[in-house]
Amino acid sequence: QVQLVESGGGSVQAGGSLRLSCVASGLPFSRSLMGWFRASPGKEREFVARIHWSGASTYFLDSVKGRFTISRDNAKNTVDLQMNSLKPEDTGVYYCAARPDGESTYKYWGQGTRVTVSS
To answer: What is the predicted pLDDT for the residue at 41?
Structure first.
């Protein structure tokens, strides 16, 4: 049984920071591309960041570049999203997702953790 469990969400003022964590189980984590997505009020879910299984390659939504970083620990089956200089438009529910090697889409999703940024 595959599980992705996010944590670290909360409420913060603009300019603040939060660190989201996702713990994975039941999947080949070290061979999975891991991503973070968010669903904001009135908007469809959007891609935020991803990290290659090796950790050597990362990619970000343009609006979060320079503010967010993504990292992973394959020994602990965790992937983190460090969010700095948060803006109200970063508000939303953040989801961790996994795309195992050989899959063409993100196959597994967590339940999400809510982030609220106030101005």
So the answer is: 83
